[in-house]
Design a protein that fits this description.
Length: 296
């Protein structure tokens, strides 16, 4: 039975860690220590680690789930850092929606210490994490994935080996760029319809049984926009980061990508205007403001 550590008990990390605590001997660490202390006190089999090094000590699989790859990289060094605790032969599984270049740099650093790295970003949202039904997209060596697979299966339903280190990050960024395109385009279309006198709920009913439908039109708009609920489950700041990564991947490969670049700009603007705590779907509010109408 592998011994596991989990670092980053945020909106998606906490429900992932909850599944792990049911099956494995689990150490948890969180920057705000009170969250990890509370987690360990309410989950039998979980222990609270004071530092990243302590979390990683004697662990076979160490999982990180932080906002960006930069926070993961910053956790590596120093007396309290991950590298000080990671044992030879361990695997660092990074479930952050990261960026491929930084992941490759992290993998190279860890390799010097005899530690493997796989990038393993997830999709399915907080509700998918709670149900243990996430999709996990993995970059790295197939043999490392096979060692980590029993651990990933506790929160993942579909686990796909995508290629070398960074491949999971790249797919995740493109997936989320598509999500961003759908949110913005659906908002523009529905704002135009609302202003021309069509009820957005009727428009969604029609679109959702027609070829323009998407997860955004089927789930996000009815549950969050027309209802005006706008729950905060996935930060706009994080989607902004993801679209930026996708735009950068396209630029690095010299792929003409005007739509991706524009989407990155729009989400940067929305993030700047709505702030750090806004949910990703609240980007719709910018479209509504520009249109002078509400999609409800
Ligand atoms: P949250 O903002 O809810 O949580 C972020 C976590 O990272 C917290 O545990 C936070 O600690 C920690 N953290 C933040 N800054 C630092 C730092 N400088 N050093 C160490 N720890 C830090 O984010 P999510 O849980 O929503 O997202 C985590 C990752 O998962 C992101 O890459 C995101 O893109 C991805 N993701 C999120 C989904 C979602 O639906 N929420 C869906 C799919 C992927 P503290 O408690 O101290 O703030």
């Amino acid at each position: 039975m592998p011994r596991v550590a989990f670092l980053g008990l945020g909106a998606i990390g906490a429900p992932m860690a909850r599944h792990l605590a049911r099956k494995f001997d689990l150490a948890v660490w969180n920057r705000t220590a009170s969250r990890a202390v509370a987690f360990a006190s309410t989950h039998h089999g979980a222990t609270h680690a004071r530092t990243p090094a302590q979390a990683a000590t004697m662990r076979d699989i160490v999982i990180t789930c932080l906002p960006t790859s930069h926070e993961v990289e910053a956790l590596l060094d120093g007396a309290d850092g991950l590298i000080a605790g990671l044992q030879k032969g361990a695997i660092l599984v990074d479930c952050t929606s990261g960026d491929p270049a930084t992941s490759r740099r992290i993998a190279a650093r860890l390799a010097e210490a005899g530690v493997s790295f796989i990038d393993a970003p997830v999709s399915g949202g907080v509700s998918g994490a709670e149900k243990g039904e996430l999709t996990v997209m993995v970059g790295g060596k197939a043999a490392d994935l096979e060692k980590a697979r029993p651990v990933l299966e506790s929160f993942g339903k579909k686990i796909v080996h995508c290629g070398d280190v960074g491949a999971g990050d790249a797919i995740k960024a493109v997936n989320n760029a598509l999500l961003a395109v759908h949110i913005w385009a659906t908002a523009e279309g529905l704002a135009a319809l609302a202003k021309s006198g069509v009820d957005p709920k009727i428009a969604l009913d029609v679109i959702n049984s027609s070829s323009g439908r998407s997860n955004t039109s089927i789930n996000l708009f009815p549950e969050r926009v027309t209802s005006r609920a706008f729950p905060r489950t996935f930060k706009l700041a994080l989607l902004d980061k993801d679209v930026g990564i996708a735009a950068e991947v396209a630029r690095a490969q010299k792929v003409a990508s005007p739509l991706l670049q524009l989407t990155a700009e729009l989400f940067r603007l929305a993030h700047g205007e709505l702030g750090e705590e806004a949910d990703h779907v609240e980007a719709v509010k910018i479209v509504e403001k520009w249109a002078g109408t509400e999609i409800s």
